[in-house]
Amino acid sequence: AQNTVIDAGRVAEHNAQQQAALAADYEALGGMLARRGVDIEKLTALAGTFAVAVPSWGVGTGGTRFARFPGRGEPRNVFEKMEDCAVIHQLTRATPAVSLHFPWDRTDDPQALRELAEGYGLGFDAVNSNTFQDQQGQGHSYKYGSLTATAGAVRAQAVAHNIDCIELGKALGSKALTVWVGDGANFPGQHNLRGALERYLDSMRDIYGALPADWLMFIEHKLFEPAFYATTIADWGTSFACATELGPKAKCLVDLGHHAPNTNIEMIVARLAQFGKLGGFHFNDSKYGDDDLDSGSINPFQLFLVFNELADAAQRAKGGDSDFAPAYMLDQSHNVTDPIESLMTSAVEVQRAFVQAALVDRNALRAHQEANDVLQAAQTLKAAYRTDVSAILAMARVRNGGAADPVGCYRAAGYRDGVAERRPAKAGVSGSGIV
Ligand code: LRH
Ligand code: MN
Ligand code: MN
């Protein structure tokens, strides 16, 4: 039997209270969808298959460059982080994997961590390396770059760290390594733009060579920050070129917050899917830059349009490229909310976009596109986007043993009060590792 963090009886009690309202909403929605020729049961079954990984660093309070205001009962190590991740999955049933970040989540006992996770029904998605900070006791500084550093010893240290991450990931059952580097220049002339990318590729070739046969490597691009003049892997074009150069195991990872404002991210998704290089996502939302806000909190239509492209790609893949399975992960930082509540809400919002995209009448859309009926083509997307699928999501959760209303259930269970007592804050401990 699976271990549960929140008493299963409490979840059942919560669902019983919600049952009548949910049944009524579900029936009303089912009737409305039936008139559109859509079987609600199919959508509910599909919703139940959805999964997005939780970032281990998301369960602590992130803070900004200016301050961090710690929350109560923050996890103090990776084992406590897993407990919080288990709550998120128990109530949403949509987050069966965790993405770890090293060395923030380093453990001397990966076997124990794996067993703890398995007990909760959790697995591990991509592991992330970190050469954007110096760690205590490290021989060389990344102040002037890591995989692109001019000093060979610095590059070697960064490569060794990534290979270490692969080793840890292997012990945990991960199947991918995500590499994001902040390397770049703050001033024109600081480094040779082409030379930096050549050194990056040299380093990445060494890491690629250490990947097990069934692993992937995700290259995560980001426009700027911490390098404010020229970031080495700033855009999907550079990411795509590097992934192509490195080989089939290298793919591109799209973090929604890593683009210039107003960038058409769904088109990037379409391009990467077309050329077989869409590796995965870091979902979050933003208004200005890499804000790392909750998914769907600022621009839910964009999230829907991303999933519309994914649905299109999945449909095409059925006929050929059957291994189209990009990794879905959240990457958020919570400053003013309870991280568990934010992560549950985000998982549900991403799942919502997934279900709404499945509602798009693709045959009608194609016909409107062929006929150049622009207005109806746009309205076909809007019809799906405007449909409130909340009852489908809630029903899928309840049927899978989750909570009708994850945040309501979580609050009623008093989990935060419990951990606040069990996990007294230690001075100087950063919950997320982001300092
Ligand atoms: C960089 C990033 C990357 C890191 C994470 C902490 O901005 O998105 O994914 O690993 O934040
Ligand atoms: Mn990211
Ligand atoms: Mn980011």
UniProtKB/TrEMBL annotation:
This is L-rhamnose catabolism isomerase. Residues 101-292 form the Xylose isomerase-like TIM barrel domain. PANTHER family: L-RHAMNOSE ISOMERASE (PTHR30268:SF0). The keyword Cytoplasm does not apply. GO terms for molecular function: isomerase activity; metal ion binding. Pfam families: AP_endonuc_2. It comes from the Bacteria. The gene is rhaI. It comes from Pseudoduganella flava. The lineage of its organism: Bacteria, Pseudomonadati, Pseudomonadota, Betaproteobacteria, Burkholderiales. Keywords: Isomerase, Manganese, Metal-binding.
